[in-house]
Structure formats: C-alpha cells, structure tokens
C-alpha cells in the first residue's frame, strides 16, 4: 500500500466519518450568525461571535452519557486568547491557545456529560471565529491490567490487595477516609508508644483503648457518624517519619501510632494507604514559596542546602542529586542524594515492620506531581520521573520491600491551568513503576459529579494498563453519577475532617448514607477478610503485541511531514503535544487499515513536539523537531 498524504485538517474531516459518525454542527447555519468566508485558509466559512459570550449550539442526544466535543476555531490575531467550552452552563474545558500566525486555525477537544434531549454548547468569544463543532458519545475504555503488581516477587499480602482492587475495578468503588489528627498515648520518659491495653496508672493515659483504635480516631468516628459505615480504606501520612523533630516524642509517637492503627485496620480486613508530605533531612517544611509561579529552590531568599528554609518555603533542590539538566544520572556523592536516601531508608524501615507482619500498603509517594507546591514538583517532568524511580528502586531493590502497591498521583500543571484538561501526563514514571494512577479532586461546586472529565483525561493520556483512583477528594462522587458516566474509580478517599479540613461536611448526610448503603460502594463491613481473598498467582501479563509504529521524517521548512505505519487495522488517534505535555493538535482520529500514511505538519510552527499514536491498546510516542 502506498503512502497517503493528507493535510491535518483534511485528515480530521476523514476521521469524523470513520469514527462512530459524530454529528457535525456548522456555525454558519445558526440563525443570526455573522458569517465570514476565509479564502486564505481552506476556503472555510466561520461564524463570528458578537461578543465575549461566544456562539451557542443546541445539540440533541438520545442517551445520557459523556460526549466528546471537537470544535474548529479561527483566531485572527497574535495575542494569547483564553476562551472556554461550556456545556449546559458548566465549563467542560478551557482552550488556551497560542496562535501560530495570523489567521491560524485550531481544532480543540473537550468532553462533557449531556442529558437526553437538548443541550447547549457554547464556544469562542469575539476574537475567535467558530467553524463547527462535532459531538459523539465517548467510547468506553477497554482496560488491560496486569495480573501482578509491579513489585517483583510481591508478598502474598500485596498480591491479595492488588487482586482485590483489580477484581473490583470497573464494578465497585471502595470508600476511604484520611486521618490527620491522632489519639495516642505515649511514654515520653522511655520514648515509646503505649499500645492499647498497655496503660498503667503511672502512665496517666489521656485516651481510652477505644479512642486510640483506628475506629476511635476522630476522622473515622465522624465518617461513621455520617454514613453508618466505616470506610474500607484508611489513609495515613508519613508526615513526621523524617525531617526536623522526627525523633522527638510526639512526632515519633505519631508515626508509631500509624503502624498500630495500620495493623488494627488490616486485621479487620481493611486497606491501609500511605502518603508522604516529605520534609527532607532536618527541614521542617515541604511546601514551596508563592502561589504561582512555584519557584521552590529558586525562590528569593533561598540558600544552599536542606536547612535553607523560610516560614513557608523549603529551599531543597533535589535536582542536585542528579547529573545533567534532565537528571539522567544519579550523583551519589551529592549531599542531596544522601539526604534523599537517608529519609527513604527511614520510611522503608517502618514499612519493613509491616511487611514482617504480613501487612501490605497502598503507597503514594511524591504526590500531586506537577502541581509545584511541593519541592518534588518544582523542577522538570524528566527530573521528577528520575526521582520517583530512585525512590522506587531504593525501597524495592535496595531495601527489599515487597509489600507496597505503588500509586502515581497525576496532577494539573499551573502552567496550563487547574481544570481536567491541564492534567500533565509527561510526569508519568512509566508502567514498570506504577500500579495505580490516581488524581486529587476537590470539587468546588460540591455537586457530587463523577469527575468523568478527569477520569477520561487519564485514560486518554496515560492509557488503560492501570487502575484509576481518586486519591484525595472533598465532596464524594455520587455512585449513580459514577455508573452513569462509566467513570469507575477504584476508590475515593475523603480528606480529613480534623486539622481544620472539614471535608466530611462537603457531602450531606443523606448522600453519605445513600452511597455507603449502596452495594456498588465497598465499606469496611463489605470487605471479605484477607484470609478469604485468594491472591492471583499469574505471572505478569504478556506484553501487548506492538500494533502501531511511528516514525518522524526528517523535517525541514519545506515538505514537513510525519510518517505513520500501522501493522494491523484498527482505531487510531494521532495527537501532538508540546514538550511540557499540553496537547496542541489532533491530527487523526479514526479507523486505519494496515499500511503507511503521511501527515502534513505544514501548519505547525517551529519548535519541539511529542507526537503520540494510540491504537489497539498501544501508546507510542516520538519526539519531533520542526525547523
């Protein structure tokens, strides 16, 4: 089969016919539209909005579901333009666009839930001409999740937890609750925790055995008060395991009490999950300075070393633990490397105690990756990936931990925005280091929607080889909304009520009870008990057979093109991303027969890009330099 060459926008038209026949709505056909014919660009017709409110389309659908929306717009100026795609009055996504040149055309995508019947979709503003929108039902993802966790020779308890999560993924959602403040009794003279049943009159214990149990903790007791159930997942934090003061009485007691409560929860059949607000070495702060930009170790007033800390900012520069601007090689002679591994070893020691008791943990290190408000998120995606892999290898290979289920926490990138479209998958450490991809969502509307936009964005950008979870949330997503939108989060974990969190209050009592009573939500009393869970002993799933290969031709100013070879026929999408992970164009979306194709990049400005091809379960990427 010969190589077929099409322009990007001709390809989009072809894709519209091949991919589930999306419905196209032409802006020029709207009543009262001011139509502009643009002979210089594809001879297309554009409707020009009268003001900033944009152009509104009335779209009728026959099924309540999530729909993909594509809009082609024309921008006739050089300035950055911010507009929104709004569905039924709710923002479905932002289009932050950088015009290539004057009279630049863009195709921008979003996803949104629409109800049976008529829906209103608004795009554009007075500076953005609108050509059309297309609407099609979002396809249901097909997950291919490994039968075994990524940790080699994972412990039986880890395989049980993983098997339980995998078995229920896509069917039920597991409930969770974070603990911040803690009740525990501590012997400050001997510097050790007093376990339940260990108090003597001389200890003058402040709390009863019931109060220091996992169920007796304020956050968990308040969860029960509202829902009538205990959560199946308990959230803990290695907040005081390392960093300044970590060996002092109360701080050490907090960490040791984590272990006691973890054992208590595990014996009841629950699932412990840990995060780590990491204070390095003797530092006492993990936050970076300023809201945006997140300057971190580049903030004014920062000095060299771990201790360079202001009241609200750590100056720790983890990139010095590596060599090169992309952190490609570890520098074991650096103080930063020594500080990092010393802390990781401390935390590993606590997890080793749980491992020796046959307890597994769902582990979420270096969370909210690209956010920038923590020191590990202030450098580049490449450096973050190397840091995550360093932590993984140190804990698994050096410290021989095999009881951890690894969670990577995708996040929005402030450089792009704070809605779902700004989730940055460029920070993903790779399939070999991650069991679960999770996201934190604090819904400001408190409307208990499924957060399907976030779910679908993760599917689109990270793939379908991993389970997907809500690692932190305020208002819970309603199970009816989850089922209706097919956004089956593996679990959600409401953040704490204590320490002024008050996140339990984001969900009304009637919704708490209705959701926790629902058979599609797993509470602690629904857990089968670990003695009754059979660990899947299958080996790691066979590698997916490569079905798509991608290569970029040598690109020059004349004859810019991208070549694509498909080994098998199937649904294929071709997207272009900036080097920071922001999608800038969709070149193709539809069915392709086996063969070779060429895509014109003549309309792309000079610069570095990443082209991603997804098809038949495979994701392939190729860096591209357009000169």
Summarize the structure.
With 627 residues, the protein is an alpha/beta fold. The two termini are 29 Å apart.
Q: How much is the average pLDDT?
A: 83
The CATH H-level superfamily of the largest domain is Glycosidases
Q: Assign a percent range to the helix content.
A: 10-25%
Radius of gyration from CA coordinates: 26 Å
Topology, number of strands: 32
How many helices? The count is 10
Task: Please tell me the total number of domains.
Answer: 3
The proportion of residues in beta strands is 25-35%
CATH class of the largest domain: Alpha Beta
In which order are the strands of the major sheet placed? 13-16-17-20-21-22-23-24
Explain what you see.
This protein is of the alpha/beta class. It has three domains: 104 residues, Immunoglobulin-like; 117 residues, Galactose-binding domain-like (Jelly Rolls); 324 residues, TIM Barrel. The chain is built from ten helices and 32 strands. It has an eight-stranded parallel β-sheet. Strands 1-30-27-26 form a four-stranded mixed β-sheet. A hairpin with a 2-residue loop joins strand 7 and strand 8. The longest helix has 22 residues.
